[in-house]
Write a structure and sequence with these properties.
Helix content: 40-55%
Shape: elongated
Radius of gyration: 39 Å
Oligomer: single chain
Strand content: 5-15%
Structural class: alpha/beta
Number of strands: 12
Largest sheet: 6 strands, mixed
Strand order of the largest sheet: 6-9-10-3-11-12
Number of helices: 22
C-alpha cells in the first residue's frame, strides 16, 4: 500500500489543476502514451495491494472537446500556450469531466488557458470547483464582482489581479451595480473613543500620582524622626534604618513620577493618532462653507497635546490630593491645619480672580493670532504676485497689525497673570512663615516638638504648591479648554457623521430645480431660480457676463457649495443624499483656479489614490488627450509637480487637471473655463476630450467665455445676473443671440467673479 501511494504521488502532475496542460493539445503524443502506461502500472499495483476501491468522483461538468488550434502564417509570432482566448481571459478555470478510466490509458486533467500576468498585477489562479464569495478588500474599492466585464478597467473580479480600485470598472462601482461603501469614520465616535482613551490613561496616572504624593511624606517623616528620636537617643542603627527606608521611598517616588510622565506623553501621542485624521477630514468638509478657519483646529489639537505633557497638568492632578496633606497637618496640630486651610482658600480666590482678569485678553490674543496666521497663508499662496508687484511692505504691514494686536492682548493678560502668580507665591511663603512661627510658639508651650514643626511646614508647602502651579499655568489651561471645545464642536457637528444610503452607480442624469443661493453674511442673491435638465451623455455650455454666477453654479453642481433653497439632483437624487465617497468617485471637476498637489503627475491624475492600476491612469490621460503632452516630459508620468505647479505651465497644469477630472470613468464632469490658459494645440486637445466624453456617454457641463467650445456641446445656458436668460439647443440659442446681437456680449473675456 505504501509503495502504491508513493508511486502515485511520485508520478502525479505536481502542478495545480488550473495550470495543467490540455490533453492532446500541448504535449507530445509519445509523452502522453508514456504517462498513460505509467498510470496503468500504478493502477495494477494498487489492485494488487487491495486498494482498488472506487473513490467517489468530484462533481464535474459535461465533457467538452477543446477546438483545434488554428494554423497561423509563419510571419505571425506564435503566442504562448497559455494565451487567453478573447472573452475568456478572466473566466475561472473549469474542471472537465474525464472519460472512463481504464488500465490501458488515463487522460490527463484539462483546463482553460490562463491569462498572462500583468506587470503590476501578479496573482494566483482560483481553484476550479470552489466557489469564492464576494470579497471586500479594505478601503480599496467596491464589492468584487463575480464576473469580469467585457471592457477593461482594471477592476477586481474572481481570478483577476488585485488593483484597479477593487471594482469591475476600477472606480469603486460595478456597471449597473451598487457602489461598495468605503468606511468613513464617524467623527463623533472617534472623538468619544479618543476621550475614553484619555480618561482611562488619566485614571492610571492618578493612581501613580496618589502613590507619588504618599511617598512625598517620607522626607517630612524622616526629618521628624531624626529630630525627635535619633538626636535624642543617639542611635546609629535607627539612623541607618531610617535612611535606608527613606532612600527606597525617594527612589520609588521618582520612578512613579517618571511612569506617569511616560503615560501622559503616550496619551498625547494617542490623541494625535486618533483625532488627527478625523479633524483634518472634518475641517476639509467644513471648508465648503467658504472658510478655511477650521483647518486651524489642527493647531488646537497640537495645543491639547502640548498641555497633556506639560507640568501644568501634573499640578492640576496634584490639587485633588492637597486635602491629604491638610489632614496630615491637622493630625500634627489643629492650629496648623487651620492655617493651611485658610491659605488654601485664599489661593483659590486668587485663582478665580486670575481667571476673570485674564480670560478675555487671552481670547483676544488667540483671535488676532489666528488672523495673522491666515494672512501668512495667503502670502504664501500669492508669493509670486507679492514679489512681482512689490507688495511685500503692505503685506507685512497687514500681518504686523494683527500680530501687534495679538501681542498687546497677550501682554495685558500675562501682566495680570504674573501679578496674581506673585500674590499666590507670597501667600504660600507667608503661610510657611506662619506655620514655623506658630509652631515654635506651640513648641515653647510644650504642645509639640521641634521636629513636628519642621515636618508640618514641609507638608503644608507640599499642599499649597499644586495650587500655586495651577495659577501660574492658568493660561495653558484656558487655551486647552478652548482648543478642546473647538475640536469637539468640529467633530460632533460634521455632516460626514451621517452615512447615506448607497445607490446604484449613476448614469449621469442631471436636474437643477429652482435653486437659490444667498451666501452669508452679504445676503446678496447670487443665483435665483435656476432650473434645467440634462440626460445622460448630453453636454451643456454655460455662458454669460462676468459676475453672472457661472462659477457659483459650477461649484453647486459638484456639491462644493449647497444651495440656500432648491435642489441639484444626480439621477433624481439630491446631491446631499448621496454617499460622499460614491458621489465624489462618480463626478469630475476642473475648477477655474487650477491647483495640483505636490507629487507626481501620475498621482495627481489618480486623485492621490494608491489603489488604482496604471491602466486607469493611462485611460484618463488618453480620454483627456494629454498622453502626448506627458510623454514629452523627461520623466513622463513620474514627473514631480511642486506645490506651485512647477515645472508645469498654466496651460499644462490645466490639461493635467482635465485628465484628473476624467479619471475613474465619471458620469458627470463640470469644467470651469477649461481653455482659459490653453494654446491652439491645447484647444484642439480639449475638443478631442469633449468628443471622447460624448462617446463615453459622460454628461459634461462646460463654463466658458469662448465660442470655440460651443461647437462641441448639445445645449447652451445663458446666465444674466444670476437668472436664466436663455436655455435650449445649441442651434436655437445661437440663432437667438445672433438675431439680438448679444452673442458677443454674452461671450466676453472670462471673469474671476463668474
Amino acid at each position: 500500500m505504501f509503495l502504491a501511494s508513493a508511486h502515485s504521488r511520485l508520478f502525479e502532475d505536481p502542478r495545480p489543476t488550473g495550470e495543467r496542460d490540455e490533453a492532446g493539445e500541448d504535449r507530445n503524443p509519445a509523452i502522453g502514451r508514456s504517462f498513460a502506461e505509467i498510470d496503468a502500472a500504478v493502477h495494477e499495483l494498487k489492485a494488487l495491494a487491495g486498494e482498488n476501491e472506487k473513490v467517489p468522483p468530484l462533481p464535474v461538468e459535461p465533457p467538452r472537446r477543446a477546438p483545434e488550434p488554428p494554423v497561423r502564417p509563419e510571419t505571425q509570432g506564435e503566442p504562448p500556450l497559455d494565451t487567453p482566448v478573447a472573452g475568456q481571459a478572466d473566466a475561472p478555470p473549469r474542471r472537465e469531466a474525464a472519460p472512463e478510466v481504464t488500465p490501458e490509458a488515463r487522460p490527463r486533467p484539462r483546463t482553460v488557458a490562463r491569462a498572462p500576468e500583468a506587470r503590476d498585477e501578479a496573482y494566483a489562479p482560483q481553484r476550479p470547483g470552489v466557489r469564492i464569495g464576494p470579497v471586500i478588500d479594505g478601503d480599496r474599492g467596491p464589492l468584487a464582482s463575480t464576473k469580469k466585464p467585457e471592457s477593461g478597467g482594471g477592476g477586481d473580479g474572481p481570478g483577476d489581479p488585485p488593483g484597479g480600485g477593487g471594482g469591475s470598472d476600477g472606480n469603486g462601482r460595478n456597471p449597473g451595480g451598487f457602489h461598495k461603501r468605503v468606511e468613513m469614520p464617524d467623527f463623533a465616535v472617534a472623538f468619544r473613543n479618543g476621550l475614553t482613551a484619555v480618561r482611562q490613561n488619566i485614571l492610571i496616572v492618578m493612581v501613580f500620582t496618589l502613590m507619588t504624593n504618599i511617598l512625598v511624606l517620607a522626607i517630612p517623616i524622616y526629618l521628624f524622626q531624626i529630630s525627635d528620636r535619633v538626636l535624642t537617643s543617639r542611635s546609629v542603627d535607627t539612623l541607618v534604618m531610617l535612611t535606608l527606608v527613606v532612600g527606597v521611598a525617594v527612589v520609588l517616588q521618582m520612578a512613579f513620577d517618571a511612569i506617569r510622565r511616560f503615560i501622559l506623553m503616550r496619551t498625547a501621542v494617542e490623541v494625535g493618532a486618533q483625532l488627527g485624521a478625523p479633524v483634518l477630514a472634518a475641517a476639509a468638509r467644513s471648508s465648503l462653507n467658504g472658510s478655511a478657519r477650521d483647518y486651524q483646529v489642527l493647531g488646537d489639537l497640537q495645543q491639547m497635546r502640548a498641555f497633556i505633557t506639560s507640568g501644568t497638568l501634573l499640578s492640576i492632578l496634584d490639587v485633588p490630593l492637597a486635602p491629604l496633606f491638610v489632614v496630615v497637618v491637622f493630625l500634627i496640630h489643629p492650629h496648623l491645619g487651620l492655617i493651611v486651610i485658610g491659605a488654601s482658600l485664599l489661593l483659590m480666590a486668587v485663582a478665580y480672580v486670575n481667571q476673570r482678569m485674564t480670560a478675555r485678553h487671552f481670547a483676544d490674543s488667540t483671535g488676532f493670532l489666528s488672523r495673522a496666521t491666515l494672512h501668512v497663508d495667503s502670502m504664501s499662496r500669492n508669493s509670486q504676485i507679492i514679489n512681482a508687484m512689490a507688495m511685500i511692505p503692505e503685506a507685512v504691514r497687514i500681518w504686523g497689525r494683527d500680530t501687534a494686536l495679538s501681542l498687546k492682548s497677550q501682554v495685558q493678560a500675562q501682566d495680570r497673570n504674573i501679578m496674581l502668580a506673585s500674590v499666590s507665591k507670597s501667600v504660600r511663603l507667608l503661610t510657611q512663615v506662619a506655620m514655623l512661627g506658630w509652631g515654635a510658639f506651640l513648641a515653647i508651650e510644650g504642645q509639640m516638638t521641634g521636629g513636628m514643626v519642621i515636618a508640618a511646614s514641609i507638608i503644608a508647602s507640599r499642599a499649597l504648591t499644586p495650587i500655586e502651579g495651577a495659577i501660574e499655568g492658568w493660561n495653558s489651561f484656558t487655551q486647552f479648554l478652548a482648543s478642546f471645545q473647538r475640536v469637539r464642536a468640529l467633530l460632533q457637528s460634521s455632516p460626514l457623521n451621517f452615512q447615506r444610503l448607497l445607490l446604484p452607480a449613476p448614469q449621469g442624469r442631471l436636474d437643477v430645480d429652482r435653486i437659490l443661493y444667498v451666501p452669508p453674511p452679504t445676503k446678496k442673491v447670487i443665483l435665483n431660480g435656476i432650473s434645467f435638465s440634462l440626460m445622460p451623455g448630453e453636454s451643456l455650455a454655460v455662458i454669460g457676463n462676468s459676475g453672472s454666477g457661472k462659477t457659483t453654479l459650477g461649484k453647486m453642481l459638484v456639491g462644493s457649495i449647497l444651495p440656500t433653497s432648491g435642489n441639484v439632483r444626480l439621477d433624481l437624487m439630491d446631491l446631499r443624499n448621496w454617499d460622499q465617497r460614491q458621489f465624489g468617485e462618480s463626478i469630475g471637476y476642473l475648477p477655474q483656479d487650477v491647483q495640483l498637489f505636490p507629487g507626481s503627475i501620475k498621482a495627481n491624475i489618480a486623485r492621490m489614490r494608491e489603489d488604482v492600476s496604471d491602466r486607469q491612469i493611462y485611460d484618463a490621460a488618453v480620454l483627456a488627450d494629454v498622453h502626448e503632452l506627458i510623454a514629452s516630459f523627461p520623466q513622463g508620468y513620474e514627473t514631480f509637480v511642486a506645490a506651485d505647479g512647477a515645472p508645469l505651465s498654466g496651460g499644462q497644469k490645466q490639461r493635467i487637471a482635465l485628465a484628473r477630472a476624467f479619471f475613474g470613468d465619471p458620469r458627470l464632469v463640470v469644467l470651469d473655463e477649461p481653455n482659459s490658459n490653453l494654446d491652439t494645440p491645447g484647444e484642439v486637445a480639449l475638443a478631442k476630450a469633449l468628443l471622447h466624453a460624448r462617446q463615453q456617454k459622460i454628461t459634461v457641463v462646460t463654463i466658458t467665455q469662448r465660442t470655440a467650445l460651443l461647437n462641441h456641446v448639445d445645449k447652451i445656458l445663458v446666465l444674466n445676473n444670476g437668472t436664466v436668460a436663455m436655455f435650449g439647443t445649441r442651434a436655437d440659442v445661437l440663432k437667438v443671440l445672433a438675431n439680438k446681437g448679444g452673442a458677443g456680449k454674452a461671450l466676453e473675456t472670462p471673469g474671476e467673479g463668474s
